[in-house]
């Protein structure tokens, strides 16, 4: 059956703001929003959007569908009425059509030192028990799609806020038994744009396509940050 | 934050910077419920005001205390306090559900039930204690 897909088009050379343009697409039970966008591109090759894996693992196809952040390849037209609206991820600068500038997101990820930090020089493998793995495994499932940033009103209001994915990533390494870098990460988390910028809206966890639950990680970060503060009061 | 890519000397082509509308929280149900949770503080403020006023009246003596009791019995005050009561129950519900996610000490269902049970016990204890006094 045929459905109408309204796409927020933006051409940086001619437009001052995105404008909706309607397209007709053929849809059956297995047509994803990404499939629909590919159909539209057949009609109008100038449509810009990102995608790669088509199987919800590369994290590049994030768009807003009816105002909710979604992965295009994991969202199906069958779940929508005859008409739906697709626009670029919220809270990021739009470069063209559905393509946003992810640089602020990447900068925030890098700011939390997302790698194992320890003094261990040995070439022996680092052993880890299943229980130690379970502590952080859920937070390690992030695919960096950025949907949680588009869901977060605090990031929308303050682009300097570290945001859900970056804080989750910090928590992922802080909880890793092989890591000793917590002291290096805490200043960033304790700062005014760190964990305390979160007011537990919780929508980030709702939209996460990998069930990472960033809201839980951020609030675990608050507990860690408060602990850090109390310990620092007793240090000379 | 510098959004320019390192090494590019050409001026960036224009990009559209979205602005968040003031009524962003009306956009969808999830944000509305979040705002409702945050707004539960308003009727609670009224309740705390009532309590403080009661303490103040108590310090002034019997007639003022009777005056406060009469004030508290007025329908609109009862209504607002009922609102404060349901608001705090709603806030407790959201809080109890979030707590196991932040501190996963036991299965979530068990933790939520435990928190309600503790609330019930403390509340009953307080009512018995204060009920004996009044
Ligand atoms: S195309 Fe890779 S996540 Fe959708």
UniProtKB/TrEMBL annotation, chain A:
- Which superkingdom heads the taxonomic lineage of this protein's source? Bacteria
SUPFAM superfamilies linked: 2Fe-2S ferredoxin-like (SSF54292), alpha-helical ferredoxin (SSF46548)
| Record-level Gene Ontology MF annotations | 2 iron, 2 sulfur cluster binding; 3 iron, 4 sulfur cluster binding; 4 iron, 4 sulfur cluster binding; electron transfer activity; metal ion binding; succinate dehydrogenase (quinone) activity
Q: Which reaction does it catalyse?
A: a menaquinone + succinate = a menaquinol + fumarate
Pfam families per record: Fer2_3 (PF13085), Fer4_8 (PF13183)
Give the 2Fe-2S ferredoxin-type domain ranges. 3-92
Q: List the cofactors.
A: [4Fe-4S] cluster; [2Fe-2S] cluster; [3Fe-4S] cluster
Enzyme Commission designation? 1.3.5.1
EC class, as a word, reads oxidoreductase
Q: Which UniProt keywords apply?
A: 2Fe-2S, 3Fe-4S, 4Fe-4S, Iron, Iron-sulfur, Metal-binding, Oxidoreductase, Tricarboxylic acid cycle
* Pathway in which the depicted protein is active: Carbohydrate metabolism; tricarboxylic acid cycle; fumarate from succinate (bacterial route): step 1/1
A GO biological process of this protein is: respiratory electron transport chain
Signal sequence annotation: none
Could you tell me what the cofactor note in this record states?
A: Binds 1 [4Fe-4S] cluster.
Domain 4Fe-4S ferredoxin-type positions: 132-162
Q: Show the InterPro entries listed in the entry.
A: 2Fe-2S_ferredoxin-like_sf (IPR036010), 2Fe-2S_ferredoxin-type (IPR001041), 2Fe2S_fd_BS (IPR006058), 4Fe4S_Fe-S-bd (IPR017896), 4Fe4S_Fe_S_CS (IPR017900), Beta-grasp_dom_sf (IPR012675), Helical_ferredxn (IPR009051), SDH/FRD_Iron-Sulfur (IPR050573)
Instruction: Give the family per the record.
Output: Belongs to the succinate dehydrogenase/fumarate reductase iron-sulfur protein family.
Protein name listed in UniProt: Fumarate reductase iron-sulfur subunit
| Organism (species) | Arsukibacterium tuosuense
Automatic annotation (TrEMBL), chain B:
**Any one cellular-component term (Gene Ontology):** membrane
KW Cell membrane (keyword) present: yes
Q: Does the keyword Cell membrane apply?
A: yes
What are the TM regions of this chain, as residue ranges?
Answer: 39-56, 68-90, 110-133
InterPro entries attached here? Fumarate_red_C, SQR/QFR_C/D
Q: Which UniProt keywords apply?
A: Cell membrane, Membrane, Transmembrane, Transmembrane helix
Q: Which domain of life is it from?
A: Bacteria
Pfam families found in the cross-reference section: Fumarate_red_C (PF02300)
Protein name stated in the entry: Fumarate reductase subunit C
The source organism is: Arsukibacterium tuosuense
